[in-house]
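Thread: Modeling a multi-component assembly for a lab meeting

Hi all, long-time lurker, first post. My supervisor asked me to bring a structural picture of a complex we are working on to next week's group meeting, and I have zero experience with this. I have the sequence lines for every component (275 residues in total). Could someone generate the structure of the whole assembly? Inputs are pasted exactly as I received them:
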Amino acid sequence: MTVMSTQQNAEELSFTIVAEFDAKIERVWQIWADPRQLERWWGPPTWPATFESFDFTPGGKASYYMVGPDGEKARGWWLLTSIDAPTTLSFDDGFADDNGEPVASMGITRAVVTIEDIGGRTRMTTTSKFESAEQMQKMIDMGMEEGMTEAMSQIDDLLR
Amino acid sequence: MVVDEVSDADLDRLFQAFADTTRRDIVSRVLTGEHSVSGLAAHYSMSFAAVQKHVAILERASVVKKEKRGREQIVRIHLLGIERARKLLAEYETIWRQRVDRIADILAEDEGDPS
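Re: Modeling a multi-component assembly
Sure thing. I ran the full set together rather than chain by chain. Output:
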């Protein structure tokens, strides 16, 4: 089991996931610190992410876009609020307009990542805290693999 | 493991919240839109402080949410908000589970790599 536990807090609009990997902490740190690796897993295959700029330093900014199944582009930005390699990372994640300018009205998601050594393996704990339900909804719209939906529509086609 | 179950203490607060005519009346008013505490108080023959106390009990039971707007205290229904948040968080959990799977796949590619 890679995912060890999850915790949802509907009052606080926060979510925590604890995962364990068969890799050293430095290797797990890389999947965050290297934008080329980050974009291989941040967005689902149906909404792949591309990081156009990535200043992985405390106070640094990153900008990215995700392209949806119909070619629609959703832009976002990160502000790296703290970085302590290879164990802790926190960042603010928000939506941006077509020019890459932050859209303040949509609110930001605060993420905190901690990476720890557990006897040669690595435990990664990620907490995300939202500001509103609307923001969560938008995040979900562009974040989820549509495998189930696609499979269902294929079945529909077969039955037609 | 989803640690989001309603505890006995939560249920006690919820039943206590609904065990009063005035509080049920406040809930029915707030269900159709937000109200200020002073606006609500105007409907009852009791002090502003007493109405405020009823609102506080509803707030502790997570039935309503209160926020300051200028000099007014606005009361909104919260129960439905929590239900929606629960659903969205469950979907958001799927996003992260899928991310963790993709990370595990990337890390698995390293195996057999001498570096």
